[in-house]
């Protein structure tokens, strides 16, 4: 039995464009982000998609809705697929966060796995949540062809898990806005079909 899961990074949001921590904010898609959402539809046109899941933030749901509407299905929001909660850093640039919270930013550089932004989640906490969502998905989507629309970090966490890589190395997987990462599972055994495949945007 084959299960196919497409992990899609949502299109660009307003905070993404400004290079600010988006975290779990409801920053809206930019005009280009909306074009990227439609490009995802084109990138998946040959795939038999049965369901679309999404992180619960506004920009992610907006992107997922474009994909789901094209396939005649509804979006199922799943909190486990949300990006890292950034706490007091949400909406800041890295430079602003470093200036306002020097001890926290230094701690994060020393221990990227366990040191959270103030009021936010650590990488280890995000990974626990995301991988719980991943294993739940494998059960509910067994034998199906589904799409999960989320942000870069949850996709990187899944890839580190499948490739048995240390979580602090998640940044080594480049996951761009509007990209597709495809994973086939045969009776639970994963085969990575593609990583960071970016369908062309019509502008």
Quick description:
By secondary structure, this protein is α/β, with parallel strands linked by helices. Helix content is 37%, strand content 18%.
CATH topology: Rossmann fold
Helix % is 25-40%
Structural class based on helices, strands and sheet pairing: alpha/beta
Number of strands: 6
* Average residue pLDDT: 96
Uncertain residue ranges: none
Strand content: 15-25%
**Major beta sheet, strand line-up:** 3-2-4-1-5-6
CATH class: Alpha Beta
User: From N to C, what is the helix and strand string?
Assistant: EHHEHEHHHEHEE
Topology at a glance:
Elements: E1 2-9, H1 14-17, H2 31-43, E2 51-54, H3 58-71, E3 75-77, H4 94-100, H5 102-110, H6 123-140, E4 145-150, H7 152-162, E5 180-186, E6 189-197
Parallel strand pairs: 1-4, 2-3, 2-4
Antiparallel strand pairs: 1-5, 5-6
Structural description of this entry:
The structure is a single chain. This protein is α/β, with parallel strands linked by helices. The protein has one domain: Phosphoglycerate mutase-like (Rossmann fold), CATH 3.40.50. It is built from seven helices and six strands; from the N terminus they run E-H-H-E-H-E-H-H-H-E-H-E-E. It has helices at 14-17, 31-43, 58-71, 94-100, 102-110, 123-140, 152-162, and strands spanning 2-9, 51-54, 75-77, 145-150, 180-186, 189-197. Strands 3-2-4-1-5-6 form a six-stranded mixed β-sheet, with helices on both faces. Helix 3 links the parallel strand 2 and strand 3. It is globular.
């Amino acid at each position: 039995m084959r299960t196919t899961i497409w992990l899609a990074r949502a299109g660009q949001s307003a905070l993404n464009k400004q290079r600010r921590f988006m975290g779990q904010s409801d920053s809206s898609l930019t005009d280009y982000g909306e074009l990227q959402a439609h490009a995802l539809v084109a990138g998946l046109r040959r795939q038999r998609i049965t369901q679309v899941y999404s992180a619960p933030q506004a920009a992610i749901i907006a992107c997922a809705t474009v994909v789901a509407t094209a396939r005649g299905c509804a979006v199922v929001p799943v909190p486990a697929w949300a990006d890292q909660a950034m706490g007091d850093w949400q909406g800041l640039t890295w430079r602003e966060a470093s200036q306002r919270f020097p001890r926290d930013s230094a701690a994060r550089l020393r221990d990227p796995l366990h040191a959270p932004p103030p009021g936010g989640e650590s990488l280890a906490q995000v990974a626990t949540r995301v991988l719980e969502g991943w294993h739940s998905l494998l059960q509910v989507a067994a034998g199906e062809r589904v799409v999960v629309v989320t942000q870069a970090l949850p996709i990187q966490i899944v890839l580190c898990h499948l490739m048995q890589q240390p979580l602090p190395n998640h940044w080594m997987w480049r996951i761009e806005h509007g990209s597709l990462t495809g994973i086939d599972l045969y009776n639970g055994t994963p085969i990575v079909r593609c990583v960071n495949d970016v369908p062309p945007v019509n502008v």
